[in-house]
Amino acid sequence: MPQARFLIVTRQLFFEILIALVVLGIFYWFIGRQVFDRAWAEIAFRQRYGAEWKQHYAEEMHVTAEENHKKLLVGSSGMVAAGVLSYLIYRQLIPKQRSRRRRRRHRHRQASSGQPDDRAE
Fold first, then answer.
1. Please, which pLDDT band fits residue 92 given cuts at 50, 70 and 90?
2. HSE on the CB side for 99, CA within 13 Å?
């Protein structure tokens, strides 16, 4: 009977991890797309209009360059925060594997000067 209980816990953990990954994937896709679309649009305006790019950007995109920079900062910070959060979730759900290597005790060598070692007595 313990095996069946283990399988239920494993399936539940699997589906929890799967749901978390799907939700985080959707979040990364949505926020990442917004951030990169805004960044590429700004780069395109800078290349196309030169020094007057801010005026054309505000007219066509209906947002000032400063507001766009704030949105880029918030979106980028959100992506970093989601990455840290996903790492912390991963560390909580997946237990750390212990190494099977044993530590060897350090053995002291005898002095090579020909004098007996004090610890031997």
1. confident
2. 3
For residues 92 and 94, what is the distance between their CA atoms, to the nearest angstrom? 6
CB under 8 Å, gap of 24 or more: what pairs does 82-86 form?
A: 82/24, 82/27, 82/28, 82/31, 85/24, 86/20, 86/24
Place of tokens 């994937």: 25
How buried is residue 57: exposed, middle or buried, by Cβ count under 10 Å (0-12/13-18/19+)?
A: buried
Interior angle at CA 84, CA 81 and CA 90, nearest 5: 140
Whole-number pLDDT of residue 78: 87
DSSP string of 60-101, one letter each residue: HHSS-HHHHHHHHHHHHHHHHHHHHHHHHHHHHHSPPPPP-P
CA–CA gap between residue 73 and residue 84 (Å, rounded): 17
Locate the domains of the chain by residue range: 22-95
CA 51 to each of CA 1, 56, 62: distance values in angstroms, whole numbers, following the listed order: 74, 10, 19
Global pTM?
A: 0.59
